[in-house]
Amino acid sequence: xxxxxxxxxxxxxxxxxxxxxxxxxxxxxxxxxxxxxxxxxxxxxxxxxxxxxxxxxxxxxxxxxxxxxxxxxxxxxxxxxxxxxxxxxxxxxxxxxxxxxx
Length: 102
What we know:
The chain has a domain at about 20-85: Orthogonal Bundle (DNA polymerase, domain 1), CATH 1.10.150. The longest helix has 19 residues, at about 65-85. It is mainly alpha-helical. The chain contains 4 helices and no strands. It has helices at about 20-30, 50-60, 65-85, 90-100. Helix 1 (about 20-30) crosses helix 2 (about 50-60) and helix 1 packs across helix 3. The mean pLDDT is about 90.
């Protein structure tokens, strides 16, 4: 068996699945600015540039917030949700222990 000195993982979907949480945070942030949205609209713009994602949400929610203010609110909400809701994907902890990362 080969010994490896490094392990690479993709951004999302391998260790955790944060995309659902991101959609939830976007919808929740829009609500602070008077918009009501179903979190599932994020699926149509998932993986696109942030400007495209926010414009999509703003259009659907019929809001026009200051982007810097929106981003600051989003960051706080997203981090809070990540801390509360995010869990490792199945077998991740065992894998990391096996490769001695944690």
